[in-house]
Amino acid sequence: MKIGFIGLGNMGAPMAANLVAAGHDVTGYDTVAAPEGMTMAASAAEAAQGADVVITMLPNGTILRAVAEEVIHAMHPGAVLLDCSTVDVDSARAVAAQAADREIQALDAPVSGGIGGAAAGTLTFMVGGTRDALAAASPLLDEMGGRTVYCGPSGNGQAAKICNNMILGATMSVTCEAFALADKLGLDRQAMYDVASTSSGQSWSLTTYCPAPGVGPEAPSDNDYKPGFAADLMLKDLALAAQAAEAADAATPLGTEALRQYRMFVEDEDGAGRDFSAMLPRYATKGRA
Ligand code: NAD
């Protein structure tokens, strides 16, 4: 397939490299990055010209809307615009509507799996859009990922991503609180792990990504909390959840509290650039107030 790939950062570059390795004709565009081994265009529109599929992997909804405006006019009818960024539901739906006006098939397909999954080609895609568009993009999703879940119409992929990451943010935060409380109660971290990981406190945050160094499987906590998944990105996703909850009039008190904690950590303390599990050393140094 002829593919335009826009946004070749930490995630986009390895995803595009997997498509090149699979034999596709990939043209990239990025305002800053220029990965080795990639044919690069001078603009987003040039990368999109004549492409069967244009993939975007960009920082946020505002940038996505601006790039989509440009590429939709360069794409031919019937082509697929596959956005893999994490953005707000409204931006995903606005881009899909704009694409439909030009007979372009849009999919929102945010991912989970991080940079490791992007490099290994094992990402999970959560997809919103039509089943026909998904069928057209499926071979590429299979080359970049290990699992695709169809979530319904446009925007529903982003809705799934935002809800999943709200669970993750709140769960990680409370797991870190529990370890910090255990410390103060004189409970050994290994004992705390051995109980909670096999009891009803069990979660992905505990057993796959344990925030306590030296306990459980290897995780960013064992590497001085280098990301991994940065606290800044968790803050972004929790803010998207809060924005969606506000628009939908949904009660999300714990999601809102997790957002407040991550905002303080990233904006007022030393959390920027640290892994999102570094909430444990943060809570460990705090008292009740
Ligand atoms: P990144 O900042 O490394 O990459 C984004 C790239 O987009 C950068 O290279 C930047 O130069 C480029 N860009 C910005 N504006 C542009 C424009 N107008 N035209 C072309 N290129 C432009 O971010 P990332 O970690 O690759 O994340 C990308 C998306 O994937 C984000 O939406 C993020 O939330 C999501 N995501 C990231 C992870 C992760 O672990 N890093 C996991 C899941 C989802």
Automatic annotation (TrEMBL):
UniProt GO BP: L-valine catabolic process
Keywords carried by this UniProt record: Branched-chain amino acid catabolism, NAD, Oxidoreductase
GO-annotated molecular function: 3-hydroxyisobutyrate dehydrogenase activity; NAD binding; NADP binding
Pathway(s) per entry: Amino-acid degradation; L-valine degradation
Catalysed reaction equations from the record: 3-hydroxy-2-methylpropanoate + NAD(+) = 2-methyl-3-oxopropanoate + NADH + H(+)
PROSITE patterns registered for this protein in UniProt: 3_HYDROXYISOBUT_DH
Ranges where the 6-phosphogluconate dehydrogenase NADP-binding domain occurs: 2-152
UniProt-listed InterPro entries: 3-OH-isobutyrate_DH-rel_CS (IPR002204), 6-PGluconate_DH-like_C_sf (IPR008927), 6PGD_dom2 (IPR013328), 6PGDH_NADP-bd (IPR006115), HIBADH (IPR011548), HIBADH-like_NADP-bd (IPR029154), HIBADH-related (IPR015815), NAD(P)-bd_dom_sf (IPR036291)
Residue ranges of domain 3-hydroxyisobutyrate dehydrogenase-like NAD-binding in the record: 155-280
Active-site residues, Swiss-Prot/TrEMBL: 161
E.C. numbers: 1.1.1.31
Family classification: Belongs to the HIBADH-related family.
Name by which UniProt lists this protein: 3-hydroxyisobutyrate dehydrogenase
Organism whose genome encodes this protein: Jannaschia seosinensis
Lineage, uppermost ranks: Bacteria, Pseudomonadati, Pseudomonadota, Alphaproteobacteria, Rhodobacterales
